[in-house]
Amino acid sequence: MKTINIEGMSCNHCVMAVKKALKNLDKVNKVDVKLEEKKAFVEGDVDNNTLKEVIKDAGYKVTSIE
Ligand SMILES: [Cu+2]
Known about the structure:
- About 35% of the residues lie in helices and about 35% in strands.
- The chain contains 2 helices and 4 strands; from the N terminus they run E-H-E-E-H-E.
- The protein has helices at about 10-25, 50-60; strands at about 1-5, 30-35, 40-45, 60-65.
- A hairpin with a 4-residue loop joins strand 2 and strand 3.
- Helix 1 (about 10-25) packs across helix 2.
């Protein structure tokens, strides 16, 4: 599982937008996004650059991926 730190999420709509963007990825099996923690948790065989890109396209910024 990867933990993605995200900047710019301020409400539930942001959470839904990030969730949707991540779920659209073929190789992502499970997604959880926590607004208070500013984090997304992703399960699946997907590389960090792809994760960064889809989140950026959704309008948010990835600060790090663990
Ligand atoms: Cu929002």
